[in-house]
Amino acid sequence: MRRLLPLLLALALLAAAFAGASRLVTLRGDIADFLPAPATPEAAFLLGELRSGAATTLLIAGIEGAAAEDLARVSRAMGDALAADARFTLVANGAPRLAEEEVALLMAHRYALSPAADAFTEPALRAALEGVLDGLRSSAEPLVRRFAFADPTGAFLGLLRGWADGAAVRTAHGVWMADGPRALILLQSRAAGLDTDAQGATADAVRAAFAAAAPPDGARLLLSGPGIFAAEAAATVRADVKLVSTLSFLLVGAFLFWRYRSPLMLAVVALPLAVGTLAGLIVVDAVFGHVHGAALGFGMTMLGVADDYPILLVTNRAPGESLRDAARRLWPTLRLAVAAAVAGLLPMLASGFPGLAQLGLFAATGLVGAALATRFALPALLPEGLAVRPLPERLAHALLRLPARRGLVLGALVLVAAALVATGGPRLERDLAALSPVPEPVRMLDGQLRAQVGAPDVRTVLALAAPDAEAALQAAERAVAALRAAGIAGAIDHPARWLPSAATQRARLAALPDDATLAARLAAARDGLPFRATAFDPFLREVAEARAHAPLAPADLAATPLLAARLAPLLRRDGEGWRALLLPAEAIDPAALRAAAATVPGLMVVDIKAETEALLADGIATALRWGAVGGALVLLLLGAGRGLMGGLRIAAALAGALLLTFAALAAMGERITVFHLTAALLLAGVGLDYALFMSRSGVEEGTDDAARALGSILTCMLTTLLTFGLLALCRTPVLHATGLTVCLGVASAFLLACTLAPRRDAPR
Amino acid sequence: MPLPDETGAAPRLPRRLLLLGLAAQAPDPLAAILAPLAAVRESRATFVEEKELPELERPLLSRGLLAWRAPDRLEKHTIEPVEERFLLEGEVLTIERRGERRQVALDAAPEIRPLVEAVRATLAGDAATLRAHHRVAASGGPARWRIELTPLSPRVRAAVQRIVLEGEGAAILLVETQGRDGRGSMRISPAR
């Protein structure tokens, strides 16, 4: 036990260092970091929307599983509670919710905000007064009286009705109710969509409001939105990873225990891995100021390569050789392996994707750290005498004879390559949704809720920039007018629909008839109706007052949260200037839209789906390009280390493994994503090690050496398979892709490394 | 826990005084008025409604039919001058007029609930609901009675200060509403 002390002490020290580092290191999660730097204004706009667009703050809640009136009660209770919560900028559930001061403000500006241009002619006034009388006769009389004598033309209520037009949801029991029945609530959080912690808190607030609303038995809360997605995705991945890592820890532990007859081997493997991870974390944080969560995840995957270093060291030790001597003897090979892997990773640093650069740096640093720990720390810390169980003889025989079948295997590789080329190669994933770690049912629920709440699945966005808010509003008005003139029909949501430009507001106020004219027309319109002469004095007074009001500007909207919330997604500050968005409500022929938009200077048409796909394809292409550069660097290094033939042999084993992996993936119908590509990096690193160590011994060394090398690589492969194999069973795209690719690849890399190793006699 | 015995062996002194005080009051007239109303499961009536508004030179008149079915369905069907259906059933108020149908949940309309419950809870003989929304003053006896309701909610009271219901036996004959600046009165004639 005493002899174990240094090793255990070192591990405890590392654990403490981890606790310290995790406090210092800033973790960030932003999938957009893994997309390339935008090359076009459209792509830049799209990236901005992905990162911080209004859509990222939207939450949709559905309540189901009870009778409609109970659902309505819960919806109202939740609506009231959440409307009072400062974390939400918008709470809409179909129930009218206007504060007194909001009513007062909108009433004061009603003639500037509403477009009723010809409401003040005598016939129009006559019709309006008859409408008022009819309303007074109805049971809605108290409501009618509240506004009718100040606003007989209904400008204010018309304004509210116009705003409600966008929502196509049916109302039942006073709230939005979809079939099912399912009560719907639309929420907008103040926190940015990418602030996962704050998004988690908002989701919790909604759940708490649901619980506080005393839902009847069986009632369920469904919650959807990008913020929820992030939390849900993180939870799914975490659960998957926890299960898989527990299982694989047990499997790997059992396997290593069997192979080395000692539980110690787990600690031996853990040490370089921990050193590498720690080094990667600290260096990436020091260089970038933060560590991207995905870079960490992928980087850890990549460090699966480092897992092999201690196994190679311990297993390759010859009988009677001290660990120190073995480390010294193996170091040139290990050094070459690490140098080649780092060379392969280096181009990622220059790739221009912040995420990819971090991943590269993390993995490279980690590998170097792990290799150094293996070379220098392990021999010093490890007690001698980790006996290795020999391989079953028949297996060793078969594997060591593989080089004899080299021609056959090479032929098969060529055939596979030809087949892959003939079938057009593996298909690339072009749908961003497929990359999402959000579980499929959650995405489907989101689509369903979105459709029910009438939030359009925005395909096309028109955007324009202006130096200030007023200019942006005027530009939006001109753009909509131009689109209409060009024959684009159908509803278009735009900021001036909610807040007309100051110019338009002034024009509307200027068009109001003067006091005397209006009084005369009103008197004529009243003729024969039972209204007293003074009944509409509030109307005359307020029209006169309206003329004196300054136009409402975006800065004045603090008192009207409803209007502010509706305007916010469509008009916002963008760097130095302002940006207005125009959202067509229904699918419009993109060609026609583009043609119409071309008549408006500065109006940018963004086809969301096409742009996203282009971004993604661009991303993968860039990754491949830098991968090729890395590959060339690796070749150079190998050539320098092993000579031309040796380098080629290793490169062939590596390329063959990649080829077989992607051929198998294609045959399985997998679409290649960025996750497969990063997993291929790991596979390339592992495959490199296998090939290097298999061919290390050369012909001059004995078959005992070869058998040991084989045993060490087989052990490496099996631990990798046990670690990543279970990931392939996960449904989360990133885990599934990584696991599957690594498993296929590691197996082919192993077999190819055996096959392409220098010929030698079979072991005795 | 033993309940205090009203016929009174020997409860402690303060409770005894309290009981004496209650006993000194007349029996609750509201209960006596509501009992015959509560016994009616279904009834029909015609009504004539008159609304006086300060903005109008003459009152607005309307007439129609009322239908009640216990425990909670009240329909006011205005026939003249404009047809309108005003149906209160359970927690939902439905108004149909000129082909337009609107539904309001009473939960969502705290300003409306006291007003509609004034009539419905009286028809149902439901004193608890009346008292939940109004200060209640009842006078007269089962034969000829008068209930005066003052809304408890200040918001409602800003619009409607008082509702007076008058009736004979199990029938409401008059509902008078005194608003901020306007009055309404509905005269009701039981059918058959």
UniProtKB/TrEMBL annotation, chain A:
* Signal peptide stretch: 1-21
Topology with regard to the membrane?
Multi-pass membrane protein
Instruction: Name the SUPFAM superfamilies for this protein.
Output: Multidrug efflux transporter AcrB transmembrane domain
UniProt keyword annotation of Aminoacyl-tRNA synthetase present: no
Subcellular localization(s) per the UniProt record: Cell membrane
Q: Name one Pfam family in it.
A: MMPL
- Indicate the transmembrane segments per the record: 241-258, 265-288, 294-314, 334-353, 359-382, 403-422, 623-641, 648-668, 674-694, 706-728, 734-757
Looking up InterPro entries in the UniProt record yields: MMPL_dom, Mycobact_MmpL
> Which controlled-vocabulary keywords does the entry list?
Cell membrane, Membrane, Signal, Transmembrane, Transmembrane helix
Where does the Membrane transport protein MMPL domain lie? 120-382, 652-758
Annotated protein name in UniProt: MMPL family transporter
What is the originating organism of this protein? Roseomonas nitratireducens
Automatic annotation (TrEMBL), chain B:
Q: Does the keyword Signal apply?
A: yes
What is the native source organism of this protein?
Roseomonas nitratireducens
Q: What is this protein called?
A: Outer membrane lipoprotein carrier protein LolA
Keyword Signal listed: yes
Q: Which SUPFAM superfamilies match?
A: Prokaryotic lipoproteins and lipoprotein localization factors
* Stored InterPro entries: LolA/LolB/LppX, OM_lipoprot_carrier_LolA-like
Write the record's keywords in alphabetical order, separated by commas.
Signal
